[in-house]
Automatic annotation (TrEMBL):
Source species taxonomy: Bacteria, Bacillati, Actinomycetota, Actinomycetes, Mycobacteriales
Xref: InterPro entries: FAD-dep_OxRdtase_2_FAD-bd (IPR003953), FAD/NAD-bd_sf (IPR036188), Fum_R/Succ_DH_flav-like_C_sf (IPR037099), Fum_Rdtase/Succ_DH_flav-like_C (IPR015939), SdhA/FrdA/AprA (IPR030664), Succ_DH/Fum_Rdt_flav_su (IPR011280), Succ_DH/fumarate_Rdtase_cat_sf (IPR027477)
Renumbered residue ranges of the record's region Disordered: 1-24
Pfam families xref list: FAD_binding_2, Succ_DH_flav_C
Keyword field: Flavoprotein, Oxidoreductase
Provenance organism: Rhodococcus antarcticus
Biased composition (Polar residues): 1-10
Domain FAD-dependent oxidoreductase 2 FAD-binding: 50-455
Protein's name in the database: Fumarate reductase/succinate dehydrogenase flavoprotein subunit
Top-level taxon: Bacteria
UniProt xrefs under SUPFAM superfamilies: FAD/NAD(P)-binding domain, Succinate dehydrogenase/fumarate reductase flavoprotein C-terminal domain, Succinate dehydrogenase/fumarate reductase flavoprotein, catalytic domain
Domain Fumarate reductase/succinate dehydrogenase flavoprotein-like C-terminal, residue spans: 516-650
Amino acid sequence: MTTGATNSHYTVGEPVTETSTPPGPIEGRWDSRRFHAALVGPTNRRGLSVIIVGTGLAGASAAATLGEAGYRVTSFCYQDSPRRAHSIAAQGGINAAKNYRNDSDSTYRLFYDTVKGGDYRSRESNVYRLAQVSVDIIDQCVAQGVPFAREYGGLLDNRSFGGVQVSRTFYARGQTGQQLLLGAYQALERQVAAGTVTVHPRHEMLDVVVVDGRARGVVVRDMVTGAVETHLADAVVLATGGYGNAYYLSTNAMGANVTATWRAHRRGALFANPCFAQIHPTCIPVSGEHQSKLTLMSESLRNDGRIWVPREPGDARAARDVPAEDRDYYLERQYPSYGNLVPRDVASRAAKTVCDEGRGVGPGGRGVYLDLADAITRLGREVIADRYGNLFDMYRQITDEDPWEVPMRIYPAVHYTMGGLWVDYDLQSSIPGLFVIGEANFSDHGANRLGASALMQGLADGYFVLPGTINDYLAGGPFADVELSHPAVRDAVEAVNRRIEGLLAVDGTRTVDSFHRELGAILWEHCGMERTKEGLATALQLVRALKAEFWRELKVTGTGEELNQALERAGRVADFLELAELMCIDAWHRDESCGSHFRAESQTPDGEALRDDDSFAYVAAWEFTGSGQPPVLHKEALTYEFIELKQRSYA
């Protein structure tokens, strides 16, 4: 049902409300929800089935935990092994409010930092729960044998990340994601051996089966044989990550895509805040047209590294030839309280500003220095190598420059997406029985994610939150059996086959990658670090024209009955094209700046993001109404009972 304003881009519908959050003091809500949630007895769990799509930190931990609880779990991933999930690429660390450094950290401070860092566009109850659960994650991972860094006395070490003034980030050198994923993978494989979990690698989800309004299964394609398969269950969980690859050049693995969540969106799941895409400030700059992805240098380097550019435009001297008085440590100058540890959105825009002023370094002037020389002198090479050695090695291998001798060059790049499928407090989407966890949902980070919080959310959702809420839904069973002959199942399978056949039948002249690269350039130019109403309107025209050309000129070689990576990429890019249109509509409608969404028309006199809380303190949850039809905007009002709404300041 729709109501209110209408324009050429979207229609405003009824508000959406979140009803599963318990009332009362925020510190007691999670305990209250767990206590009042219906339970499923141990013997009854064996008769209930759950499909989990994705085997990263969120998906692997959820599958392991639900399998151990006794549910029958079927897991899917498009990689050749769960260990290849993109969570493995996370470098710097995972947050937890354990206050090991005795620096006044607390659950409330982690909650406050996260809401503030997200520029007051996240749901208070979800974020507080995340902060509460964070302390349990570390204990869980230590018990699994995750080799966190330790101090001399044997205690777990901590370091700081952007947007905070305490040290709460646990880490394993610069490979924290890898170590955490191996821990979750071992837990998953233990349940595979126990017979409670079945894993299907090299299978890509292409649709959700919705029967009588409930998610009851998925349609997948065997990526080796091309066979289209249907798998049914009592509930479906999506743990498929974010959509940063819509920009083509990003820090994500090239296979990362939006297809699973976008297919669910087309089946009725609301998509929330799609314009909130995080630009990470510490990436190796673009080096040429040949690149298909960018490489992240961990934010943890900002603990000891100092970021600077020459004071004067056009200064072409080598970094070591620029004396201190001719250097502008611009983050330390602009934000003295936080210095180089300001949040990612702030640091990214500041880097863009100095480069736009002609003070950037490296080819094309699209870089700033991340300099660890002072820290090497102060702490010694051995200490820095122990903290960041693998990052130094990676930088040298990619750039052929030795960061021990010259500063690293960095520039912002697309990294993480805060938008995703809308979920309630139970992590259930607007389709009953369809749960969404990790980066695939929108729930915890608002308009900007603080560093080291992605791993925290993924493991919180998988190990603790989902297992505490999905039982409330499954307790409503037993669910009626669904046969493969059911009309809803046949409809989903036929839709997948039609789409595959349609992609193969175009037989045009352009490659999939050429469309993807062009789409990424449009988004980066008009819906990247800085957006304008006019630029977003232009982007919408360009994206729509490109989508039309895609379906006229796409060239996919091979067939659908074989391993066909061109076909795989074509399906993903087709979904990116549709998502990109919604991203631009979402950014166009939000006439404010907040976090990663910086509208040039809405900024303070000193160039900071200027929110409009009176008009935009809501989650924008979008409803799909059909191809080529304007989406419907449903607003979930954000209320702040425990944190005061105010303009962010990191000065």
